[in-house]
């Protein structure tokens, strides 16, 4: 039975998982779940993920959700996934865990707060909330500074200064790309916070 | 002894790492960094962790922060760590990653700001923030419900139906223990409805005895101090109420 990936391409963590599968030649069936139509709240999808979130996967009888957990599972379970995505070396691997964890409470919170309280607010039954958007911008700005000054330190163009991308690069960049949903003026202002290093990383990916 | 653990035992994730080391007989030096005294903001500590957060470890020249990353590193790098903490089986391990990730955006997102903004903030020189607490409480309550109905739904004594604890049990239980410093009424209201959660906390405490209680002593002392402060404040309020009543009697 083929791997099933439950997906909504407007979701950042979903895109990270889909890109990972395609880049590594992992065969999968993409099952679209439209969040805007609340398909993630149906009893059918609750069978897949009782916490009603995307992405989720089903691999045979094994069900899994949370994108970082999924990326790690795929990297470990499918032959042919190059080591640089999730290195077997314990020290390199631990650093990847560290940035993935940092991501939850830092970078991810920024674009999510901005986008959910502005352009996609109606999808979440919210109204435009300038206060929350301002909060989100502060978080984003702080997170981008840390990426510039710390996570991209080193000789290579990717996170942790390495020469080839890992699952961490995929996860974080997909979150930054969410800013594409904003109107051009806001996006340019916020992406202007990125400097040369971050752009290089995004484009290389 | 090359492993150093930078910790403040008032910090939930610091406690998880310390208890893990003690349970597994890992040789380490605990370097206390007091958040309340701003020691995490010094340039010395910034050398260890530029994010200025706890816990952090150094193992020889290797530095690492983020408690889940640390727990996984210790489980993999130190011989003698029993498999149940971080099983080698890919599927079981993935489910542990899943609950650890869920924790960041759910339980921790609710519990940490709720406790901070109702109770702990003044200890760190910040004001209480009832609005932030009010926003955090539903996230905390919903997370406890999810633990009760989903993460603890299988037959075992621990998360994901396990009969022995994993690093996920340690991390999440240490987070919930922070609720001990709340006003008793609030704690009972928030935690009271969740019987499985309460039993699981007890199971984790017993499975990591005596280290669990020893490492939580600092928190329990803080709890006692805060309770005494509340009692004193209540008595003083009672006194001023009487003074207000007197003129009307006269």
From TrEMBL, chain B:
GO terms for molecular function: glutathione transferase activity. GO terms for biological process: toxin catabolic process. Keywords: Detoxification, Transferase. PROSITE patterns: GST_CTER, GST_NTER. InterPro entries: Glutathione-S-Trfase_C-like (IPR010987), Glutathione-S-Trfase_C_sf (IPR036282), Glutathione_S-Trfase (IPR040079), Glutathione_S-Trfase_N (IPR004045), GST_N_Theta (IPR040075), GSTT1/2/3 (IPR043377), Thioredoxin-like_sf (IPR036249). Residues 1-82 form the GST N-terminal domain. It is an enzyme of class 2 (transferase). This is glutathione transferase. It comes from Hibiscus syriacus.
